Amino acid sequence: MTDFGLIGHPISHSMSKIMHEAAFKELGLDYTYGLFDVREGEFRLFMENADFRGLNVTIPLKIAAVKYMRELSHEARVIGAVNTIDFKDGAVGYNTDSVGFINSLEEAGVDVKGRAFLVLGAGGAGRGIVFKLAMEKARVYSFNRDPEKSHLLANEVMEKLGVKVQPVSDIKAAIRDVDVLVNATPVGMHPNVNETLVDKQLFHPALTVVDIVYNPIETRLIREASERGCRTVDGVGMLVHQGAEALRIWLDVNAPLKAMRQAVLDNLRDLAQPPV
Ligand code: NAP
User: Fold this and answer.
1) Does the pLDDT at position 273 exceed 90?
2) In the prediction, which pLDDT does 274 show?
3) pLDDT of residue 47 exceeding 70
4) Any idea what DSSP says for residue 274?
5) Alpha helices, H only, 34-144
6) Is the pLDDT at 231 greater than 90, yes or no?
7) Distance 120 CA to ligand 1 centre (A)
8) Which of 17, 25, 62, 258 is catalytic?
9) 57 in ligand 1 pocket by Cβ < 6 Å?
10) Is the CB–ligand 1 distance for residue 245 below 6 Å?
């Protein structure tokens, strides 16, 4: 039996195995973590036969996972997506992406309550971030390439939480009014490392810029924001903190954040090396 694992498709590029194995080693725990390539059509059968202590769930299964859970955490229920399953007492679904995002901001010293955030992207990750920021009483502006999606998201947040999210169609106009900009799109991700959604001239020094893309660690967005004097937070923090929260749920442990982060950084640096 494998104790823990990640399910989704594709999963070969995932950092989860490396990160969790580093955590188990640091904690002196003899657990195993496997990667299981599961597509949506195979999900039901996989869950019927699942024999694990815990699972992480990634694209494209996070929304589908909701219907296989006996119980959901508050975040998973409101957001409508599960990325961590605990099997101690039937399948209980959590959304540690959203918690990990907030914890990574806290670690970086970024206040949330009452602050204004502009979130770029209303896909899987952007949705979770917008919902969680609304739960944490931030003021949220949502931008999406397809504007319909940010309007739908704002309506859903109002329906479920009674909190107003402002959909915006112009990054340039909105960025002036916010304390924190969050990129929750894949723009700038390897191999398209020269892409960015934000003109460098728009960064003002009072702005904090968060990019949840972690490959490369320093995206063009992060580099240019930093050059303009902004505080920046890279995507490794969210990745490590969502994993740490999963470990807390599964094993009731304080995760070894330093070892987990180092394992991810080492792996990302290896990936960045040209093949010999
Ligand atoms: P997704 O569900 O596919 O959503 C993608 C979002 O990005 C959509 O809002 C899409 O807009 C937008 N988008 C895509 N290409 C764009 C472009 N060229 N210009 C403008 N907008 C564009 O993906 P996801 O799961 O949300 O993931 C987004 C990124 O976050 C990925 O790079 C992923 O690796 C990263 N991520 C990081 C962590 C972490 O722990 N650090 C966790 C989760 C995800 P449309 O709706 O208009 O298509």
Assistant:
1) no
2) 65
3) yes
4) P
5) 43-48, 74-79, 96-107, 124-135
6) yes
7) 9
8) 62
9) no
10) no
pLDDT surpassing 80 at residue 123: yes
pLDDT > 90 in the chain, percent: 96
Q: What are phi and psi of 88, to 5 degrees?
A: -55, -40
**Cβ of 213 less than 6 Å from ligand 1:** yes
Is 62 part of the annotated catalytic residue set? Answer: yes
Give the whole-angstrom CA distance, residue 65 versus residue 8: 11
The answer to whether the 4-95+237-272 and 98-235 domains have the same CATH topology is yes
Structure tokens at 233: 């937070």
Task: Kindly report the CATH number that applies to the domain delimited by 4-95+237-272.
Answer: 3.40.50.10860
DSSP state, 275? Answer: P
Residue 263's alpha-carbon distances to 213, 269, 270, in angstroms, are 17, 10, 11
Residue 191, preceding bond cis, omega within 30 degrees? yes
- Going from N- to C-terminal start, the domains of the chain cover 4-95+237-272, 98-235
For 31, the 3-state DSSP assignment is coil
Query: Which superfamily, per CATH, for 98-235?
Result: NAD(P)-binding Rossmann-like Domain (3.40.50.720)
97 lines ligand 1 (CB under 6 A): yes
Atom of ligand 1 nearest to the CA of 242: 40
Task: For residue 234, report the distance from its CA to the centre of ligand 1, in Å.
Answer: 15
Mean of the per-residue pLDDT values of the chain: 96
Q: Which tokens go with 102?
A: 């907030």
